[in-house]
Structure formats: C-alpha cells, structure tokens
Amino acid sequence: MEEEVSLHYLVASVQLQYGLYSAFMGCFVYFIFGTSKDITVGPTAILSLLVATYDDPIKPGSDYNDPKLAIILAFMCGVIQFVMGVLHLGSLTGFISTPVISGFTSASAITIAAGQAKHLLGLSFSSDTFFESLVGIFVHIRKTNGWDLLMGLSSMVVLLLLQKIQRDSSLWMSHHTEDTPGYLKVVRKSLWFLGTARNAVIVGCTALLVWSLDTAGYAGKISTNGNVTEGIPTPSVPDFADFHFLTIIRELNVGLIIVPLIAYLEAIAIGKAFARKNGYRVEPNQEIIALGLCNIAGSFFSSYPVTGSFSRTAINSQSGVKTPAGGVVTGILVLLSLQFLTPLFQFIPKAALAAVIITAVLKMFNYKMFVKLWQVSKLDLIPLTVTFVASLFLPVQYGTIIGVVVDLIILLYPIARPEIKAVSPSNAILKQEDNLFLPSDRSSPLVQIESCPVLVVQVDRSVRYPSAENLVEKLNNIRESKVYYQQHVIFDFSRVCEIDYTAVESLSDAIADFAKAGVKLYFVHVKLYIHDMLHRANIPGLEIFPSVQEAMQSLSGSGE
Amino acid sequence: MEEEVSLHYLVASVQLQYGLYSAFMGCFVYFIFGTSKDITVGPTAILSLLVATYDDPIKPGSDYNDPKLAIILAFMCGVIQFVMGVLHLGSLTGFISTPVISGFTSASAITIAAGQAKHLLGLSFSSDTFFESLVGIFVHIRKTNGWDLLMGLSSMVVLLLLQKIQRDSSLWMSHHTEDTPGYLKVVRKSLWFLGTARNAVIVGCTALLVWSLDTAGYAGKISTNGNVTEGIPTPSVPDFADFHFLTIIRELNVGLIIVPLIAYLEAIAIGKAFARKNGYRVEPNQEIIALGLCNIAGSFFSSYPVTGSFSRTAINSQSGVKTPAGGVVTGILVLLSLQFLTPLFQFIPKAALAAVIITAVLKMFNYKMFVKLWQVSKLDLIPLTVTFVASLFLPVQYGTIIGVVVDLIILLYPIARPEIKAVSPSNAILKQEDNLFLPSDRSSPLVQIESCPVLVVQVDRSVRYPSAENLVEKLNNIRESKVYYQQHVIFDFSRVCEIDYTAVESLSDAIADFAKAGVKLYFVHVKLYIHDMLHRANIPGLEIFPSVQEAMQSLSGSGE
C-alpha cells in the first residue's frame, strides 16, 4: 500500500516524495510507544488539507510548494501533543463535539475533492477552499486538457469498478464453506486483493501507460508529477533558522491548536474503533504522547504532520495483519520504495492520482449526519451546519474554530445568563427549610417582615465570570423596575457554590449602585468560604446575614 | 487635547497623521448613535498596540508601516461589532474575565513602554512584543543617540512634575471656599490647566525647541517624525482591491475577534464607570452598534480601529464638559489641526512623544491586581499570570486568547469531568424519594434486589459533549473493575436534564461495550424528552425503565 501513502500529498501540492518521507518514521516510533495494536501512522487526507494552507509556493509561479513551514509544523505539532499527553490534556478534544467533527470532515472531503477536480481537468491554479476551487474551475474551464480529462475519468471508472469487486469478493469469501471448490477460493481471493490494491493498480498501470506514450512520441500530453528526488532523506533539524519564532506563531496561528487536536482525534477515533472490534483498550494519554513522538521524530526526516490513517489501518486489519509490527513492515516498504521506486514516480499522471484521491475522500462526506441530527437532536444541527458552511468558504481550520465557538456558546449560554427569581420574603423563608428558625425572643417577626419593603432574589446557579456582568444588570433592573422601586433587596446565596474574582467585583459594583440609589443590598445564606472571600475583598457597604429573617430584622431596625 | 490623539500612533509606527485621521469621524458618529454622555471616541494605546502587529513596513527598511491592512481591520472590526450588537452578542465579552483583562492591560502597558524606550534612546528597530523590544535594546544600545536621550528624559521629568502639579492643584481647588482669594483661584486653575494639558505643552515646547535648533544649524541632531501629509483626508473606500479576501482572514486572524471585543470592552468599561459616577445608564447593545458604525465610517477616512478613550473621556469630564456634544467639539478641533497645524508636526521629536506615551501607559500597569487576587481568590491568579506572561512573549492578542482558553478550562473542568457515583440498589431506591414505590402485588422486591448482582450509577450533572467520552470511560472502568466485575449496571438519569447528540452517541458506545462483555446497562428515571431523543436515535440494545425496581425486576427475570 506504499503508493497510497504518497497520493494524499498531491493535496498539498508538494513534490511527491514528501508523502513517502512522512510515511516511515511514524510507523517505527508508533510501534514502540503506541497502545493500539492496529493503527498505522502516516499522512492523511485531512491533515494534508490542513497543512496545505501553510505551504507557500517555492517561488511565485512554481508548481510546487515549499515544505519548510509544514515540516516545522510537524515538529511543533509533535511538541504540543507530547506536552498535552504529559499534562493529561487529551480530554480537551472532548470540546470538539461529534456534530463539529462531522461538519469538518464532510467539508474537508468536498474541499479536497474540489481541489483535485482541477487536476482531473488538467488545470493549474492555487486554491485553499472549496469556494476558491469552484471559482477557479469556472474561470479556467476553457483550458481543460482533454488527455488529462480522459485519463482522470477512466481512472475513476476503473477505481469504482475495482471497489465494487472488492466489496463483492469480500462478501463471497465470508460465505465460503468447506465445500467451496479450491479454484473459486483462489479466484475470489485474487479479486479481493486486486480490489484492495486498486489505488496501487491504477497508479502503476497509468504510470506504465504514460511511459509507453512517452516512448511512442507523445511525451508531455498528460500532466505528470515531474521530477522526484530519489532516495531516503538524510536526517536534519527542521529549518528553524529561516523563520523568526514570532513569524512561525503568526503564520501557523490556529494551525498550532487545530492540527495537533485533529491529528489526535483521527488517531484516537481509529484506535478506539479497532480496540472495540478486537476487544482491547487504548490508553488516550499514551496515544497522544506516541503521536507527538512520531511527529517530532518525523520532522527530522522532512515529514509532514502524521497521525493514524483509517484507510491504511483498515486495509492492514482486513489483510489479516494481527501484530503491531505490521506498521514496521509498512515503514520498511516505504523506505524500499524511496530507495528503488522513485525513478518511476515521474511517470505517474496527476489526473490518475486525483481520481484516486477523489474516490477515497468522497466516502468521508457524511450526509447522513444531517438526517440523523434532524431526527435526534435539532439543536445539534446548528454546530454541524455552521462548521460545514464556514469550512467551505474559509480554510477548514477556521471553519472548525468557528464551529467549536458556536458549540461552546450553546453550551455556556445558561451559565452566562443565570435566572434570577424575585420572591416575597415570606415565600423565601418558607422554602428555606434547612435554615428556618423563629426564635422565641423575637415577637412575631413575620408581621414585621410584611410591613417592610423587602424583596428576596435567588439565582439558579453559581456566580462565575461569564454571568457576573449580567447579574449586576439584572439586579439593577429589579431595583429600578416600577414594581419593586425603593424596595430593599436581600440576595439569597444558598444555591451559589462557587464564585470568582470577576463576580466579587461585579457584586461590589452592584452594592455601590444600590447605595447610590439609597436602597440596601444584603446577602444571606452565604457559604463559609464565599463569606471569607467576600470579606477578604474589602467591599465597602457589604452586609452578610445568616438568614432572611436576620437581614430583615436589621432592615426594619434601621427603618425605625 | 488634539495632540494627544496623534501621540498613540507612534506605537504603530505609521505616519503621524493617521492618529488624527482616526480621531474625528468616531466623535461625530458616536454623538449620533452612542448612549454614554461622556465617552470620547478615538484611537487608544491598547488598540494601537493590537493593530501594530498587522502593519508591515511600506517597503523593507522603511521607517513607516503601510496602514492599508489596519484600515481594513477598522472596517471589519466595525462590521463585526455592528453584527454583534444587532444579534445582542455583546455579553460575549463576559467570557473575558477581570483577571484576563488585567493581565492583558498590564502586559500591554509594559509592552508599549518597552516599545517606546527605543525612541527615548534614539534607536530604530522593529519589535512587536515586550521580549523583542528588550532584546532589541540590548543589541542596539551602543547606537544610543545622546540628544534623543536627553530630550526624552527631560521631557519625562517635566511630565511627571506637571502631573504632580495637576493632582495637587485639583486637590487645592476642591478645598476652595468663598473666602479663598480670587487671585489664588486663578493661579490654581491655571496650574491645573497646565497640568492637564501637559502632553500638549511638552509636544508644543519640544517642537519649538527642535525648530530653534534647526534654525541655529543643529538640524537632524534630534530624531523627529519627519514628513507629515497635510490636510483632511479625502473619503475613500478601504483598499480591499489590494488583498484577497482569504489573505485578509489569514493575516488578521485572531485580530478579527480580539480587536472588536477589546475595543468594546474598553468603551463599555469607561461608559459604565462614568454612567455610575454621573447617575445614568448605558445600553450595552446600542454601545457596540455605535462603536461599529464609528469604525465603519472611520475606515472611509483612513481611520484605524477606534473606541472610547479613557484619558480623553476623563479629561473632558474633569474640564467640565457636560454634554455629549463635547465629542463633536473634539472632532472639529482635530479637523482644524489637520488643516492648519500639520506643518508644525514635522518638528515634534520622537523622544518627547515616547516620554508622553510611557508616562501615560505606565498607569495602566496594575500590579495591585496580583496582590488583590492573592488575598481574595488564588485560583484567579492562574488566568492573570498566564495572560500576563504569554502577552509579554507573544503579541498581546495571542496572550489574551491563551488566557481566555485557560480561564474557560478552569470554568469547564467540572463539566468535562462529571462525578460518577456507584451505589448499591437499596441505597439508590431509598434516596429516590420522589420515585419510591413498593407495589403491593410484588412480594418484597428488596429481597430479590439483594440477590441480584446489580450496581446503580448516578452522574452529578447533565451529560453534554465535553463529558461524553469521559463518561463512557468511567462506565467501562466501573464495569471492568474487580469490585464490580460482572455486575449489571443501572444508570440513574434522574439528575440529567440535558443531553446532546455527542452524548447519545457515547451512550450507544457504552451499551455496545457492555453488551460485548455480556453485562447489561439499563437506564432509569429518564426525563420524557431525553427518553424520546434516545429512542429516535435507534440505539441497539437500549433499555429504559421507569425505576430502579422495574429495571431489577427485568434483570432478575432474565437471570432466572
């Protein structure tokens, strides 16, 4: 399957060998540090797409992009993953929900497919988003190269046929019994192998065809990948000297968060799926450390960011690979290809590669998720749709960030907008079972209470910074509203379990606002450590009472 | 005060007139749409610092930066603020807590001061962060220009003196009585005016000095601002044609979120402070719409992003300006300066401007916040310190983003890591007061219960996407732990009020994991709409029962 490894890299428009450079170190390092028995590490379509936006052409007008920044990204991505693993921060990926992942994946699939469509047509322009590719194709459509189009379309038809053959023969093989004739078994196994190796078959056959055309005098008719550097890359430190540290931060920006997280998400999703199937468990923190080491080690061999690849892992698993050393075999095969096969790569037609990539990625477009969310949870359609649409018009990493933010807003809205309930004091006291007391030395406090213009407010959750300003706003609204005008307010803190400095400051503002209006704001049922915190903050005019009754006692006393 | 307006713009190393370009449209537009009676809109030191990172030199080696991208940022910032206002999203700023704001402001202050220190020394190099400025000064210190240093230091001494005079005279004036002699009142009022106008005084006097030195044959000894374009800018559409839309997104990236939010935060903080002092209220959504319109309108007059300026607002207020039309007067003064005073600007020494900026911004460094948080809320020291340190080593907008993310992690940690409690069924039933029932037609269900290997788990809050994976992990841990091995599990959903698709998927995974291990996972006390959602998701093997008893009835039935 070593050819497949190189294919994805057309997405990033770098020279073909970088795909192979990315495909061996990860296999060796993962074998040592990984916890999944099935994962094969290497470049993936989605990572290629993410990395593609950080590639600039080597020089203006060049067909190939400069891989330096992408290799630095691999190194940085590795360091960030390693640190995340050590700090047990892998669960941060929990903040990327299934709808966001699905929207991102589907948008990536059609962005990659649209980006490859130009190679099917033999066109050449640069595009980072689905929208740009679409516009580019419309603008350049008259320059379509008939040879490339023919090559691309026929490759695609053959690929789809081989895919069907693989699926069918796999089905037949599952129905084999002891009575099945031996020749039939051999034929079906061969068909299955042909179908499984379809990408390699297409790439090999079309390269052969181009070579034949070349020798027959039709050189240059079909666009090919051109010069490929031969041999295994010599290890070298990533090219940090060419970039200022801040330039790296500024150029890579959100990529420094998105690439490590998405890479980890891909790997852990595959790891868990196969672990579930084969009855073992993966250790998430060890996985992200292993991936980090793969990326760091890889960056010394000119590797792009890598992660667990679903297609290669699946093929390994279907091919009957039952040992984690399968990755090592893959790595060795890649090294052998680099050493011996690279001269042949120059004959690989771009349109055939594009056909391989398109048929591979279109499976990632998950339209069913839209239907499913419509049926199950319509609110989740918002992050899905936002992520999907934003990722079509912007580079997918920005689309994902926007999706995550929208999702967080939906999650945090109730925290940022707490419900405030205003009740009459007698109701508040009756509900406060735990704290209810009517001391005998006070003559019917309830009578005093009713004569006193007081309002009790309660908040439905803890007071933290996102809701702090909103709380002051609501308290002032209550104070200024006609219904409650000039009533003193008792703030019942019994449901407030947590508080932070921003909230303390806002409460201090509220007390000042109330004081200015000549209205009192008292606090009751304050938990001990919140009580301490409020006192340490030295808020002028702060008054805390154990219960509503005592606060009212004080109010009616001051009123007299 | 029109000079002050232009000063801040040295921070961004653009030609001086851009400061003035930014200072008039906002005043007029805010007068029409704003709700604060005090705010004066214009460029501020913090916004200048934020914008500075988006300026590239006009050409390599040029002293001035190209303002095009900054003007586009003003336009985009305006559009984003306007949309936020219309969608009532102003409360999003609640997610930037006081410790983060404080860390950001303090770091900005010393970043700006360090950036200006090079002008005090007469050095010339580019730096975006505090760290870069520091390194630059060490590297270039031998090239210090004695004239500039003398000019800068003496300006600073005079400024500090004038600042003290202003403070003292202000104090004396507050103690004036009817008996105070008239001449004393006049002297003190004059001193107060001199102190308040200290920036203009310094700029004016030093420019005069430079002009005298020039005519005396010492031209060029002191670094000045050089050529300034005269006149009021002609309105023009921001230079979008020079940039691809995606280039704008990629270049401005986090600036597109941070600049509109910080600008709004500055304005609303000032607006609220003065509203509190003068007894009125500002309408946050209208404020952000007004700011958005100021920025959009400004960008057509080559303005940089603008917002409410604390120093100018404070001076206006102290000077006795009592009408919102004060801003209009400021705007007209700026236009007059542009028309008539610009020829004089070329004599303003850079070192004097730097001294003005440094004395102004150092007040923003709030070391007391570290002490305060140490006393009141030590957990809040984490976002403060992270934001502060990150903002010194990275451009401040990245530091702020990092601070916000760290703060969110602290806020969301309990949501992402829910507590799961495993209890024995009898305990679970006894605690479930609301749902407790012991039907008479069943013979002592509690006896059956004890004989059945069952465990009840409860989760302490809603099941949402950040905690979904963690929940499955914990359920599987319980299932696999030696203590509970091979016990069926009943998941008590009574405290789960919200659920989303990611959580539904995770529960489905958990059911599959349990089924594979031959252990049952039942759900009880599921709220009606969550019940509906789980059913619509078609989870294979999902079993929901009204209560623990009925789930156990079914388990013991299947066990027999």
Summarize the structure.
With 560 residues, the first copy, chain A, is mainly alpha-helical. Helices cover 61% and strands 5% of the residues of chain A.
Tell me the greatest interface. Answer: A-B, 59 and 59 residues
Number of strands of chain A: 9
Low-confidence stretches of chain A: 1-9, 432-451
Number of helices of chain A: 26
Whole-Å distance between the termini of chain A?
90 Å
* Helix content range of chain A: 55-70%
Estimate the strand proportion of chain A.
5-15%
Task: Describe the strand arrangement of the main beta sheet of chain A, using strand numbers.
Answer: 5-6-7-8-9
Organism (chains A, B): Holothuria leucospilota
Pfam families (chains A, B): STAS, Sulfate_transp
InterPro entries (chains A, B): SLC26A/SulP_dom, SLC26A/SulP_fam, STAS_dom, STAS_dom_sf
Protein name (chains A, B): Sodium-independent sulfate anion transporter
Mind sketching the topology for me?
Two copies of one chain form a homodimer.
Chain A: H1 2-7, H2 17-21, H3 25-33, E1 41-42, H4 45-52, E2 56-57, E3 65-66, H5 68-86, H6 98-120, H7 130-140, H8 146-174, H9 182-196, H10 198-218, H11 245-252, H12 255-278, H13 284-299, E4 307-308, H14 310-318, H15 326-340, H16 342-345, H17 350-361, H18 368-376, H19 381-393, H20 396-416, E5 420-423, H21 425-431, H22 445-451, E6 454-459, H23 465-480, E7 488-492, H24 501-516, E8 521-524, H25 528-536, E9 544-545, H26 548-559
